[in-house]
Every structure is written in C-alpha cells, then in structure tokens.
Amino acid sequence: xxxxxxxxxxxxxxxxxxxxxxxxxxxxxxxxxxxxxxxxxxxxxxxxxxxxxxxxxxxxxxxxxxxxxxxxxxxxxxxxxxxxxxxxxxxxxxxxxxxxxxxxxxxxxxxxxxxxxxxxxxxxxxxxxxxxxxxxxxxxxxxxxxxxxxxxxxxxxxxxxxxxxxxxxxxxxxxxxxxxxxxxxxxxxxxxxxxxxxxxxxxxxxxxxxxxxxxxxxxxxxxxxxxxxxxxxxxxxxxxxxxxxxxxxxxxxxxxxxxxxxxxxxxxxxxxxxxxxxxxxxxxxxxxxxxxxxxxxxxxxxxxxxxxxxxxxxxxxxxxxxxxxxxxxxxxxxxxxxxxxxxxxxxxxxxxxxxxxxxxxxxxxxxxxxxxxxxxxxxxxxxxxxxxxxxxxxxxxxxxxxxxxxxxxxxxxxxxxxxxxxxxxxxxxxxxxxxxxxxxxxxxxxxxxxxxxxxxxxxxxxxxxxxxxxxxxxxxxxxxxxxxxxxxxxxxxxxxxxxxxxx
Amino acid sequence: xxxxxxxxxxxxxxxxxxxxxxxxxxxxxxxxxxxxxxxxxxxxxxxxxxxxxxxxxxxxxxxxxxxxxxxxxxxxxxxxxxxxxxxxxxxxxxxxxxxxxxxxxxxxxxxxxxxxxxxxxxxxxxxxxxxxxxxxxxxxxxxxxxxxxxxxxxxxxxxxxxxxxxxxxxxxxxxxxxxxxxxxxxxxxxxxxxxxxxxxxxxxxxxxxxxxxxxxxxxxxxxxxxxxxxxxxxxxxxxxxxxxxxxxxxxxxxxxxxxxxxxxxxxxxxxxxxxxxxxxxxxxxxxxxxxxxxxxxxxxxxxxxxxxxxxxxxxxxxxxxxxxxxxxxxxxxx
Lengths: 503, 334
Known about the structure:
The complex is a heterodimer.
Chain A: E1 20-25, H1 30-45, E2 53-59, H2 65-75, H3 81-87, E3 91-94, H4 100-117, E4 123-127, H5 134-143, E5 156-161, H6 168-179, E6 187-190, H7 197-207, E7 221-229, H8 238-263, H9 272-285, H10 291-297, E8 298-304, E9 306-308, E10 311-313, E11 331-337, E12 347-353, E13 360-367, E14 387-393, E15 397-405, E16 413-421, H11 422-425, H12 433-443, H13 452-469, E17 477-480, H14 487-494
Parallel strand pairs in A: 1-2, 1-4, 2-3, 4-5, 5-6, 7-12, 8-17
Antiparallel strand pairs in A: 7-13, 8-11, 9-10, 11-12, 13-14, 14-15, 15-16
Helix pairs in contact in A: 1-12, 6-13, 8-9, 8-13, 9-13
Chain B: E1 11-18, H1 23-35, E2 42-43, E3 48-53, H2 56-67, E4 76-83, E5 88-100, E6 103-115, H3 122-126, E7 136-140, H4 150-154, E8 157-160, H5 169-177, E9 183-185, H6 186-201, E10 214-221, H7 225-237, E11 244-248, E12 253-260, E13 263-270, E14 277-284, E15 289-295, H8 301-309, H9 316-328
Parallel strand pairs in B: 2-6, 3-4, 3-7, 4-6, 7-8, 8-9, 10-11
Antiparallel strand pairs in B: 1-5, 5-6, 10-12, 12-13, 13-14, 14-15
Function (chain A): Catalyzes the oxidation of glucose 6-phosphate to 6-phosphogluconolactone.
GO cellular component, one term (chain A): cytosol
Catalytic activity (chain A): D-glucose 6-phosphate + NADP(+) = 6-phospho-D-glucono-1,5-lactone + NADPH + H(+)
C-alpha cells in the first residue's frame, strides 16, 4: 500500500492530478488547440497538475517535438512562463493511426517519459479525433500493450467525445470494439455539458436543499421545459451536420443528460456509481415513442433566411455544403413522458435548434397554478405560475418566478423574478468544462462521464424518431432564422394548453 | 476621519457622510443611498467584512484593496478607525457599483471613525450594520487582537497577516487565538503555492517513501511566514526541531534532504530572484530528476483576501503548523 502524502493534507488533495502522461490523438486538430491545451494550461496555472506531467501529441501531420511545442504555445494566448516550461516537456509522434509503427514509437516515447519523470506507466489517452477512428486507435493501443495499467500502480484510461455511435446499433458496436481492449472502468465518455458548473449545480440544488425536493414531482410540477438554443448556423460543418442533425447532435447527448439529472431520483451517494445508476433509471423511464406516436410528439424544423443578432443570415439549404433538398433537422421540439412514480403525467418538453434568437441552455420547472386566486379578476393579470429556471449557459444561475403585490392602494399582483447569478455569489472562478473533465479523467473520477448503458438508453429514446426522420415525407417545418422555431412547435404545446417560455 | 480610497473595478454610485452622528443616522443613510439607484442591479450577499485599523491610512489602504476585488467584493465592508479625542462617531456611506462578466453588482462601503469609550465596545457599534444570517469577518489590519477583545466573540472569523507581526512572540498570540477563534492568515494563503509544490514533489510512488526519511529541512523566509512554513513541514512530517533550520530571507524557500533505501534525495522549492515564479526540483541519487515551474498568483492584498475568505472554517493544518512554529521559535506554548 502506497503511503499517504502528509504534505498534501488541507491542499487540493484528492483533486490534484497524479503523475501521468496525457496522450492526445488528433493533436494537430482544432479541439486540441482550442479546448484541450487551454484547459491543460489552466490546470497548470491552478497548480493542479503533478510536477511529473507531460503531454504527447499524436497525429498524421509531420511535426517535430519542437513544432508541436510551438503550436501548443501559440494555442494559449497570454499564458505565463509556466506554460513555456511545461510545454518544453511535450513530445510528438507523427504517424498514421492504422500503422502499428506509430504505436511502437508512442510506446518508446512513453517509456522515456516514465524514466525521465517517474510517471509510472500512467496514461490518459484522449481521442480528439473523428469518431470513425475510435475503434481502430483503441485496438492499436491494445495491440501495442498500452491499454493495460502500468506495472508500478499506474493506470491507462481512454477518453472519447460524443458522438458515441450514429444510432443504437453503431453505438453498441463501438462499445463492443472498445470493450475488447478497455474495461468499462477505463473508458471516459465526455459530454462537455456535464462539466459545466450549473449542470452539476442541478444536483446541489435538488439534493442539498430541503425546500426543492418535496415539490420536485407530479404533485407540484405542471411540466418541464428544456431549451438548448444556438444562435449560430452550421458554419463550415455542413458536411458533418447533414449526417447528424439536431437530434443526434444535441438531443441524444446533451438534452438526455440534462433531462436525466432533472428527473432522476436522489442517489444514495454523490459518486460515480450512485449518480450514473440513477441517471440510467431516469432514462429508462422515458417512454419510447411508437412509430405512430412520433408525428404527434415530435416536430422537425429547418431554418430559412432571416436576421440573427442584428445580422442577416442565409437559410440552411443555402449554407456551404448543404443540398437544396436537404431535410436535415436543424430544430427539434418534442414532448416526452417520464413514466415513473414521480413524473407520471408531467410532460417534458424539449426543444433545440440552430439560428434561434440567442444562445442559451436552460431547464424550466413550471409549477402548477394555485388552486384558487382570491384576488379580484383583473388584478392578477400579470401573474403567471411559479417557475424555477436553471440557466446552464450563458449567465449561469437560477431564477425563481413568483407573485408579488404591486405597490399601491389596490391589491394587484404580478410575477417578479428573483435571480441568483453564479458569478455574483461565489468568490471562486468556475473552472471551464474541459478543465474539470480533464482533471477528473486524470484523477480517475468518472462521475461526470457517461456510462455505456446511459448512451444505449439515450439512443433507444431517439431510435423511433430517427426512423421517422429517415422518411423524406416526414414534415420539415420551416422557421425563419432569428425566431424561436416553427409554428408547429408552438402548436405542440398549444394542444396541451401550454406555451413555450420566451427565455 | 477615515476615508475610503476608491480602487479599480468599482465606482461610487451614491454617497453620504456625517460627523458626530449616531448609528441610526448611518443606518438611514444606508437605506437612502440604496434608494438613490432607480433600478439597483444584483446585490451580492456573501459576508460582512470589518476592517479594523489603528491608523486611518492603514484602514484606507486595506479598504482600497477590497475595492480592487470589484464584483468579487463582499457585500458590505466596514472600515473602522479609532481615534483619541472627544467621544463621537464620524461616518461615510457609499454605494459602490461594479460590473463582472456583464452582470452589474452593487455593494455598500462604510467608513466609521470612532472616538471615546465606544472604541472599547465596537461589537455593539457594528452589530446593527452586519448583514442578517451572513458571517462577519474582522480583519485586524495593523495589529493583533487582544484575547479578550469583544469583537472576537462577535466575529465568525478573524483575518490577520503573520508577515506583519515582526516579532516571533506574536506567533504565540496567534496560536492562543486559535483556541477560541477561526483564524484566517494572509501569510498562510501566500504560502499555498509553496506548499502545493512541495507536496507535489512527493506525488510519485517512488518518491513518497522519502517523506519518512527526512534528514534535514532548511527553510528561508521572513519572520512569521518562514516560521509557518517550517512549522508546517515539521508538523506534517513529524520531524524533530533539531533537523529544521530557519534562515531570514526576503522570499520563502525550502530545501529538504531525505533518504530511502540508501539513496539520498534532494527536494527544493525556491523563488529565483524577484521573479514571480516558484521552481520546484527533485533529484535522487541514481534515480530520476525533474523540475517544474509555477507562476505565483498576483501579490495584491485583494487576491490574498479573496483567497482567505473562500473558506471560513477552521484549518487544522494551519493550526498545527502555527503550534509547531511556536516551538521552533523557542517560545512557550500558550
């Protein structure tokens, strides 16, 4: 048994990365320079990395160690001298992922770093690549003997990013391929939404407060609205987006994760197993739509030209790389049922889309109306039902809407909002999502990563909708860019006597 | 009279001042300045922070440090200066505004100058100004509190800076305070990067056994922080006083020599010159050697205060380090 480090008491302690090497596949790509390296730099700045830490980049691009170091230095603007020092340890392996020689070279470099830094065979393999190579890289790591934990108590972990498969079948196949090499405990599936403070705060709000949980059920909640809105279009990702669409890109992962955290039962403990067990139970409780039900419950939309944030934008079919007859969903609205004791009869309305008026993600718990309003008619016109809104991005925080008397002689009541702004309440700066998740992967805390059964269950919910969307005759509701979506989405709620929030 | 210095990151939205006033006058002024804002933005409510200074200048300097916190400023800061002279209370009330990440915030800033017997009953004077249900932290800017200071009973935590104590005997006073008070020490906050780097040097499983074979510890630094750092190492590692050597120096630094299985390891954390960096290095006979570099956080008092206020509970590691520092200084335990 390794003796404890008495000097670590009272410091970051178990939130401090152990000695290890971060191996980034796709090191010359956008994700590495835009997200991963700034996150590593932040961790270094916060002194959360071990003194025995290094990064090895792997990619096809013919770079030398020095080229890689220079690029990674450039990737982080305004970094301090510690970044220069840290990057001086970075190594680079150029090679094709299909060539075993690439992995032989990688093994040699890792051995050298173990001897040099004392990293004891501990590695985190981060696949910042296209999903198509996940299985191949995993197999090559296994063939090269790199997937097994080091002999000196080290570890080997694999980090992959969504999408996890293209549908249920391909997701299952990906799991089979990965599990042939890595145990489930070694696999860290990233959905960067889970690294956001406010998503984690959902757990704190629900399970650290006595006042919310008693009303977090069908007795008090009328319905739930989850909105993931983007103001941007597809940009240069048209080719990718044509094969994905909003359902695959956002609903299957981000929305399902947020919904699971909102609907789940209290876990026994806030640890990886406790939380993920409850999340998967919540996902299993979502009533999978039958093919006949999809049309009544799901709206597929696509944006036309319009104005967003003061700028004129083109319609989806006029975007680069998009066909004139594309029926790809840039907007999805749906009504889901969570059939369990807590939520039976409470609709969960979900909407996500591109080219909406602003970028935001929120979960709104809309409470039931009071049973009787004792105020004269006309004096409570500005009063809406209570709502608790969790703003996930931007301006992370919580808003509670409730009724208050308008000052004056009459007893007029109207809704007011009480805002809790995350940034205004805490002295600590929130870590960026990637920073948090990278550190968790190094520490070996999988709580904020997605387990394979969660991925599978989320695909099961999406499967009948994907099947319906694959039929070109399924309606594509048009919406003008810069609006909150097609009128068919309004109708979806109107039929239930409700309407979307205007966030 | 005490005056607050306007700092970066916050602007005065409204103000009021009065001489020889009474507490209800000041409370009314607080209400008035808040009302003067037609649409007050978000109000932060974190704590009440009292700055206690013997000299008006010191108080103003400390208050300026808080203003630099901008939106991370605690909700209500009260600077209190005591003066000789005719009994009376002078007060200045200001509504401060700041913008953080596009969110507008506001907070109140009070400066009180107290003369006469009320100087000895500051707890009763300050109580009406504290925010309900929020902790009160008292920052003793230029002196240490007496153990029987009534403010200690009212405060949830006391903020000090061991660096400013000057004499080692004050370490014993601090140690005594820890028996009844939650003590926050800016010196301890500033030592954190050193402690982290030292702890990280022993992260590797091959290096950790050296922690049990420490042969000598050499600590350099100022009186106060240097003692704290040495006390921390000796208490965490259970190393006897005779193996710990203290040297007066401008910046903190540590060298540890340790043995394991017949091999000697040298572990060092030092600040090269006046650069704001800390270099940590390890070299083991016949083993690996490595070094790392971290940048020290900005030296501003604002940063130190923000860090110190982020945890308002007892810190047993600090308290044990302080007790060990008292021993290292050859002082009797309180």
